[in-house]
Specification:
By secondary structure, the protein is mainly α. It has one domain. The protein is 79% helix and 4% strand. The chain has 13 helices and 2 strands, in the order ααααααββααααααα. Strands 1-2 form a two-stranded antiparallel sheet. α1 packs across α11, α2 packs across α4 and α5 runs antiparallel to α7. The chain starts with a helix and ends with a helix. Pfam families: EmrE. InterPro entries: EmrE (IPR032713). This is Membrane protein. Keywords: Membrane, Transmembrane, Transmembrane helix.
């Protein structure tokens, strides 16, 4: 239950991303700065946290062992995740991006067969490829169905170009984020805690963000004070607090793909939090009765997903004991 609660808390802080990114876009800010400033601002805060825990040197030592792997999977998990999300905010409102982002629930489940787990047998430990969590995937479809219901009325008012440019980048991000996160968990094992892993991935992705910032400086000019401040808020709420909470939740269920899928399913709450945030901060219209019905479907899907994942884990434990 604790990983689920941590995932929901992470979803609350992640919602700031969709709300503020759209606010920055509406005020004339470039998606380039929205993306790069978040991770640049994250660095000093994460360094202070890790140094205060006396784990900084240990992190650098482990990063030096496989620097190319750190660069590769940090690029996938952070750059290919966040840059497309910010780019999509140029063409679609926050509610659509937050809704489309929930496809990561299915994306995470579809990635399961690409990973393996260690099983101890009489002949010693062996690597066994994970199976596709069909039951959990079905529950994920229920969650996505609720999201589709929420978007149903408003999506009809968007042009084809806005749908493609606002949706396709988010789909790419939905696969990149869980893939990079899981690969880094495999790479780090038990040697790094959540704070170290987040800082390590942020540092490894920093060269890409600095290059993007340089490109933005020559193409769109320097960011405004308002965008800089809003990016700072996103960095704290989404980049530091939400990322650490989510990574901590995934660490607690590391090695169990069914529970991991359940934790990733909690991110569907971002839609609910985004709706509330847009109502309060952006004066968005109150959702219709149909939209509230979609939110209810999301909640039901989350409960069922968590329940059946836990039930499957209990069955697996009983089989092993037998």
């Amino acid at each position: 239950m604790r990983p689920i609660l941590l995932g929901i808390c992470a979803a609350f802080f992640f919602a700031f991303t969709f709300i503020l990114n759209r606010a920055m876009e509406l005020s004339g800010g470039s998606w380039i700065w929205s993306a790069s400033l978040r991770y640049i601002f994250m660095v000093p805060f994460l360094i202070l946290i890790v140094i205060s825990r006396k784990n900084f040197l240990a992190l650098l030592k482990i990063m030096k062992e496989k620097p190319l792997s750190w660069l590769c999977w940090s690029f996938v998990g952070f750059v290919l995740f966040y840059a497309p999300l910010c780019f999509a905010a140029t063409f679609a409102p926050g509610w659509l991006i937050a809704g489309t982002w929930q496809i990561t629930i299915i994306s995470g489940s579809l990635l399961v067969p690409f990973f393996s787990k260690t099983i101890v047998t009489t002949n010693g430990p062996i690597q066994v490829r994970e199976r596709l969590p069909i039951r959990g995937l079905f529950m994920s479809v229920i969650i996505v169905l609720g999201i589709v219901i929420i978007q149903l009325e408003q999506a009809n008012h968007l042009s084809i170009q806005n749908v493609i440019l606002g949706v396709l980048p988010v789909i790419i991000a939905s696969f990149a984020y869980p893939l990079g996160n899981r690969k880094m968990m495999d790479l780090c094992g038990e040697r790094l805690d959540t704070f170290q892993r987040v800082l390590g991935m942020t540092l490894a992705s920093l060269p890409f963000w600095l290059l993007l910032s340089l490109y933005g400086l020559f193409t769109t000019g320097a960011p405004s004070r308002q965008q800089t401040f809003q990016s700072f808020i996103v960095a704290i709420c989404s980049g530091v607090i939400a990322t650490v909470l989510f990574f901590r939740a995934t660490d607690l269920v590391k090695g169990n793909m069914q529970k991991l899928a359940a934790v990733e399913a909690t991110q569907s709450m971002e839609v609910l939090f985004s709706v509330i945030g847009e109502l309060v901060l952006l004066s968005a219209p109150l959702p219709s009765l149909l939209s509230w019905g979609g939110m209810f479907v999301i909640m039901v899907g989350m409960i069922l997903h968590s329940y059946f994942s836990h039930k499957s884990e209990q069955s697996s434990t009983q089989e092993i004991s037998a």
